[in-house]
Amino acid sequence: MLRHPSRPALKIIAASGFLAAAIAATPAAAQNAGYDPYAGEAGGSSFPSFVAAPVDSARWIVTVSANADVGPSFRGSDKYSITPYPLIGIRRGGQARRAAVPGDGLTIDLLDNQYVSFGPIARYRSGRYKADDRKLFGLRKLPWSVEAGVFAEVWATHNLRARAEVRHGFRGEDGWVVDLGGDFVQPFGQFTFTVGPRVSWASGKMMRSNYGVNAYEASLNNLVFPQHGLYEYKPGSGIQSAGAATSLAYQINDQWSATAKATYSRLVGDAGKSPIVRRLGDRNQFSLGLSAAYAFGIN
User: Where is the signal peptide (predicted)?
Assistant: First the structure.
């Protein structure tokens, strides 16, 4: 997903077009009276299953989604922008499809197991640019990046999920990130509701990249340390945020679905103490999003 902060109008148009095209392609699909959220795959899984039989028999099942999120322009920002982006999820045929949960990223599930998932993951990370906020004058630009790593999740029951991710960015200033989360998942009819906590840890290098201020930057931007003797801020590794995420998905038919989601996180520890956050932004970070997804099989 690529966000270009200097072209907000294009982002809005692209997001609207993505979602409109996806929804418009499914006019007849909404009449799916035979849908059963607890009907398992051939193996009798108790997890919710939404995939049509032709897709079911495929070796791999691919889910492609068009997404549009409204969230902070950069980490710690008090200004918000719209970001359209695609996502892809790949799993083995015969596995029950699990509920879409906010922030799962681009994943490939390598295990043929109904209780445990494991595989590679990639996430887009937005950057920080002067165009995002004039108060950033003098602070270094942080280009957008892609974080890659591995994920693992365990379903204790069909209602409870625990997930962990370990990722590292591709740019020189990037560091390690570990995200932990849990979700309560409840299907009812063609809807699926999810809610759960989130915690994120970052290495010292990642914290300094996102929340640190060096002496040169402080000399150019007197907003970060107004009338104080402190002219540098060097955060260390630790928990950077804690919060929660929720979503409501509607299964239009066996292959199409639409999801609304919301997340909240509060920057804590050294991240929350950063002058970039306290002086120029906000420790409380909110986001809202919509997505339309299509699943198909490949052999």
Answer: 1-30
Dihedral, 184, 188, 191, 195 alpha carbons, nearest 10: -20
| Interval 147-178: pLDDT, tens | 999 999 999 998 999 999 999 999 878 899 99
Q: What is the mean pLDDT of residues 66-95?
A: 89
- The type of residue at 116 is V
Which pTM value belongs to this model? Answer: 0.77
Whether residue 1 is contained in a domain is answered as no
Instruction: For residue 164, tell me if it sits in a domain.
Output: yes
**CA of residue 66 relative to chain centroid, distance:** 13
Please give the single-letter amino acid code of residue 28: A
Question: What tens digit of pLDDT does each residue of 171-181 get?
Answer: 878 899 999 99
Give the position of tokens 């699990």: 98
Residue of 178, 195, 291, 174 whose CA lies nearest to 243: 195
| CA 20 to each of CA 50, 52, 68, 77, 198: distance values in angstroms, whole numbers, following the listed order | 22, 23, 11, 29, 30
Distance, in Å, from the CA atom of 58 to the CA atom of 293, rounded to the nearest integer, reads 18
Count of H helices and E strands in the chain? 6, 11
pLDDT at 222: 82
Domain count, the chain: 1
User: Domain limits at 250?
Assistant: 8-298
* 34 C-beta neighbours (distance < 10 Å), count: 8
Provide the terminal-to-terminal Cα distance of the chain, rounded to the nearest Å. 27
Residues in the chain: 299
| Residue 78 confidence (pLDDT) | 95
Any domain includes 97: yes
Contact (CB, 8 A) for 60 and 298: yes
Alpha-carbon span 89 to 99, nearest angstrom: 12
CATH of the domain at 108: 2.40.230
Q: Does residue 239 form part of some domain?
A: yes
